[in-house]
Specification:
The chain is mostly helical and 219 residues long. 71% of the residues lie in helices and 2% in strands. A two-stranded parallel sheet has the order 1-2.
Length: 219
């Protein structure tokens, strides 16, 4: 039982994702002013209703990826989760001081895709866009899996589904291109920084151990 608890304890970090919703919903308004980062390219790209399917698979996707990663490579898992938390902190600070919005199109039709899009629109205000939380979590899930030695039967579908989730944010008009780019930029900056610090301490500790060993030999 103790061993089982020890193995399951790291999974609690995944709880930071739903917990972050407390901050997300609190900031999801225009009380502090709002900006629009829509470009001509965003206006040119059409609404493609079928992309609501990958968009709504996010929670299932994250659950699979992070649980798999936790048991497959604990070291990578911790680095990914730390990166995720740091990205969240920057995202929420950005939402507070630089709130953005997306102009949503008028969705008509009685098909299932239209209904799902309208449900998404009604349950999530068109704010807290820059950077995209959807993209941050998806990108880090894919990155984490790719850093393991998982076989292609795992990596290939994870990459395909992850890519579809990321571009779905654009094609159902939940986000603009700048939201996606900034999200990926944050992920790479923090993950690279964490890796750099990790390598620095490895070298520092190796030199320290070498100096102690050399001192003992001289004595």
């Amino acid at each position: 039982m103790k061993k089982l608890f020890k193995n399951l304890l790291p999974l609690l970090l995944i709880g930071s994702i739903p917990f972050s919703n407390l901050f997300y919903w609190t900031l999801n308004n225009t009380q502090r002013g709002v900006y629009d980062l829509t470009t001509d390219l965003d206006r040119f790209l059409p609404l493609i209703k079928v992309f609501i399917i990958p968009y709504m698979t996010l929670w299932f996707f994250l659950a699979f990826c992070f649980v798999y990663l936790c048991f497959k490579n604990r070291k990578v898992y911790y680095k990914i989760m730390l990166t995720l938390i740091l990205c969240y902190v920057v995202a929420f600070i950005t939402f507070y001081f630089f709130q953005t919005t997306v102009a949503r199109p008028i969705v008509t039709g009685e098909d299932i895709f239209s209904k799902l899009i309208l449900f998404t629109y009604s349950s999530d205000m068109p704010y807290n866009c820059f950077p995209s939380i959807h993209v941050i979590t998806t990108y880090l899930a894919v990155k984490g899996i790719n850093l393991t030695n998982a076989n292609k039967r795992i990596k290939f579908p994870v990459n395909v589904v992850g890519f579809l989730i990321i571009i779905s944010t654009q094609f159902i008009k939940q986000h603009v291109i700048m939201d996606i780019f900034f999200a990926i930029f944050l992920c790479e900056v923090f993950f690279t920084g964490i890796t750099y610090v990790e390598e620095y301490y490895k070298i520092y500790n190796s030199k320290k151990s070498y100096n102690l060993l050399e001192k003992d030999i001289k004595q």
